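Preliminary data (for renewal application), calcium ion complex.
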Amino acid sequence: MQQTLKTFILLTMVFLGAMAALARAEGIELEQRMRVAPFLMEGLLQVASGDLDGDGLCELVVLGRDYTEPQVLVHVLKADTESGELAQVWQSPNILEERSPAHLAVGAFLTQGRRLILVLTNNRAELYGWEEKQGYRRQAAYTHNIAPGEVTAGDLDGDGRDELIVARVAKTGLKHYYEQLLVYRVEEDELVLLSEGPVLGNIRAVAAGDLDGDGRDEVLAEVGKASANGEIHIYSNEGAKWVRRAEPVTLADGAVYGMTVTRGTEGSFVYTASEQGCLHIFRWTGSGLQAVAEKKVNLSLYSVAPGGFWADHWGLALLYYPNGLWVLAGPANPGIMALEEALAAKTKVDSAEPAQGLVPSEGSMPETGGEDAPLSVGGQAEAVPAGPDNPGVDGPGETVTAPEAVPQK
Ligand SMILES: [Ca+2]
Ligand SMILES: [Ca+2]
Ligand SMILES: [Ca+2]
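Predicted structure:
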């Protein structure tokens, strides 16, 4: 027992030492913590973060889909206390609904502070949460007729409980969908419609966060047609009232399918991830969004989740087509200037060894996977060893062909 404790302390010290060395480096450097393609499932749909088990650190939540043997699963990943690697700690039951997309939102839906995972399909929803001693368990199940497009969670009225925000088709045009934002309160036995927002157009991403720091989250929607550049609409909502908070922000990143909001000591920031491989960070200025950092990679990005996955590290999780998970780490609270610098610099890519439990088992590999996978990543990918056909690369994104579309949800 004493030996185990000693080993644990030693490993922890080694880990902390390595972290301290990283933090002492001039400027800051983003370190690749994990880059796996394919990751467990044939298609990854969405990534989100939140402290689910109340230990003060964020877990990473990944929603994915298999097509050959149809199933939709949620995976929860947590940083291993010794190695710092993100390892899977829970996998949901199959939550597939035939002929339906699937969406994910993480929020404190039922009570203040306790973050839960809500997965929605066209007509069903399942709510999962972590319980002391029990682990992850289903908290509620719903049937509904919402047929949601994009979804997110945010506390729009400032009561400490997150509402569910849904983009849903309001009317169908000749060529395009016209969607609006709806707000629901998640109760234990039903989803209660609270408010219907304006019809905005084809909504490709939604996010919520407290931009102005008044305790109530604002709602953001990225609107655009097909793969064209879009714009971000920003609203406050209270009851039936929707207030436009800024002129729509024009983007030049192509289709943005991933968007999220963070709030820290330096203010509020909006992260967008685009199909064309552009990760953008914007600062809320009080009347709009100002671009403060960007990184371009040759990966088709479609979901982004920053989070405090480690006690002394900040992390950024990205999904790339069709089932790649990419996690970057930097010192905790890097500051936006340092982060801007780090993103502009070439990201350091070191060991791409996936965490324990993340190696796809043979049974879970897509039939088209392995060396013939059309979009497999070069030397970084666990499932595609470096070789004559897959030469290693010294940086991310150099060997991936931009795909034509994001996975079908
Ligand atoms: Ca946690
Ligand atoms: Ca609320
Ligand atoms: Ca606010």
